Amino acid sequence: MEPSQETASLVKRLAGPSIGKAGLAKDQADINRIIADASKGSKFYENEKKKDQELTKKIEQMLKLRDELTSGADMQKVEASVDQLLHKLESQRDLSQTIVHFDLDSFFASVEVLNNPELGGKPFAVGHTVVSTASYEARKYGVRSGMASFIAKKLCPELIMVSHGMSEYSDMSHKVMAICKRYDPQMCPAGCDEGYLNITAYCAEHDMSPDACVEHLRSAVYSETKLTVSAGIAPNTMLAKICSDKNKPNGQFHLPFESEAIVAFMGDLSIRRVQGIGRVSERLLDSIGIKTCGDIFTYRATLSLMDKQFGLMHLLRTHLGIASNSVQPPQREERKSIGAERTFPPLGDKQKILEKLHEVCVELESDMEETQWTGRTITLKYKLDTFEVFTRAKSSTRWISKKEDLFAIGQELLLPELPLTIRLIGLRVTKLKDLYGPDPSIGIKRFFDTANGSSSPNKKRKLSASDQEISCETTSNIEDLPGPTDDESSNPVPNGLEATKPTSTRSRKPESKPRPPSVERERHICPVCEKKVAIENDAFNTHLDSCLSREAIREAQAESSASAESRTSPKQGDIWERWTKMTPGSRNSRK
DNA sequence: GCGGATCAC
DNA sequence: TATGGTGATCCGC
């Protein structure tokens, strides 16, 4: 056998991001070999190789830095100071909430089997050029989500490819989410096939153990949809998510709610399993000796010296198994961007490329109209036939949402870059403004559409701070309340410095966790919906606008039972839209 | 504010 | 023959 040219890291990289997340098959080395061979020579392969080599170089530099930092430091002393931090973190551990993460088993594939029982027991995959979901039979061959279909075929020649049935997935997902909401009305969906619940109240009210509650949930989902779901039960979202994988498929896992057991559980857990640590961070950490969450403790002094590179606090919390235990549905006003992008066979002709840009503009306009957003900053994204990705952005003084405007700015950004051979074009709009209202003719649009427009004569006529105060203070409620009740978003890992000093020692219900000063944001309670809202950057304006509009809807409906629904529907829409649009041309049903 | 990178799903 | 789309965040400048 000829020795392969690839480094171990490249072979692993080519196997895709989902490998290493799940348990790896015993013959994973053979599988990786097949994947690398099938990829070899392609532009995709060359780009992956380039990225892999750049990362290797970055690691070399990082190790040099580590040696400099550690050689000049009193490691014992550093360790002692980290141990103090650990002690402080441990003292803040909150085991009072019961958090559940649920996850439908191979969701798309399971729905396909329901609709076409012939597929049962066969190796098949949902997707077109790329595998979205593989059936468990296909996974035995090494077929994984995100894998190019032609590679999946090489791994499993009998593989059946099935195209997406998005509307069916949509229906099923809605059903499942509705069932889960019975156990916590504040359920937070995390995509179409998973989500988080806080079942503390439900268990208390129904005098039920967490295990029984989750059994009940899973059996309800199965009896009402014939879909199986796995779940994890733990004191916070990070642990619950990890636990839901433990007895997959169709199982549940309950982590003991005890500090020692939790730290032991984390001890031999691969660092890759924790949210926010992807393939790159895995390699970076591996290079300094960290493979498991237990290794974080071993190398705590090094991590402390390299806080900037690794984010010490987050890793310490991870080692201890401490994370947010707050579960909240996403808020509409939290949205930061809306965009569209499309891949196509590589094009070099300027006119053809502009046609693609136009198509993207048409789609984006339609999405922005449907979801009632407008924005000021346009970012063009393009991918060359070499798979290299670039972005170019431009901020406008006007609110952009029409395809003509999108296209004009898109062209302005793209034309100076040409000539190029391009395989993907995308546009994204940021600096958003919410236009959501019950009726566009009487909605926010009418009052504020021209408010910030440079073309508008009454310039800067936007709802100012003093305007806010009027509407808010008359309802007498705007005051800094006892601090944020949830913070610590379940968002990606901050890979940077975190405060070592609590800003507050006040304890509160879901979790008492100090917020780093650098992240401290002012929040006020909205007089309408009584939720806390960031006050800066127009966010409060935006929120209040939409909230008042929703209030108007509710009053018009004069139907108290519908009020909760009407308040939450826009948020759900956002999440929904996020995954509904996962695949191009599959919004409706398959062909 | 911009551009590159990383990550989740 | 052939490797997705949406959205978020962070860092360095």
Automatic annotation (TrEMBL):
One of its GO terms (molecular function) is zinc ion binding. It comes from the Eukaryota. It catalyses: DNA(n) + a 2'-deoxyribonucleoside 5'-triphosphate = DNA(n+1) + diphosphate. The keyword Cell membrane does not apply. Residues 45-95 form a coiled coil. Residues 465-478 have a biased composition (Polar residues). One of its GO terms (cellular component) is nucleus. This is DNA polymerase kappa. Residues 447-522, 556-591 are annotated as: Disordered. Its EC number is 2.7.7.7. Residues 508-522 have a biased composition (Basic and acidic residues). The keyword Zinc applies. Keywords: Coiled coil, DNA damage, DNA repair, DNA replication, DNA-directed DNA polymerase, Magnesium, Metal-binding, Nucleotidyltransferase, Transferase, Zinc, Zinc-finger. GO terms for biological process: DNA repair; DNA replication; error-free translesion synthesis; error-prone translesion synthesis. Pfam families: IMS (PF00817), IMS_C (PF11799). Residues 558-567 have a biased composition (Low complexity). PANTHER family: DNA POLYMERASE KAPPA, DNA REPAIR POLYMERASE UMUC / TRANSFERASE FAMILY MEMBER. Residues 99-278 form the UmuC domain. InterPro entries: DNA/RNA_pol_sf (IPR043502), DNA_pol_Y-fam_lit_finger_sf (IPR036775), DNA_pol_Y-fam_little_finger (IPR017961), DNA_polymerase-Y (IPR050116), DNApol_IV (IPR022880), Rad18_UBZ4 (IPR006642), Rev_trsase/Diguanyl_cyclase (IPR043128), UmuC (IPR001126). NCBIfam families: PRK02406.1.
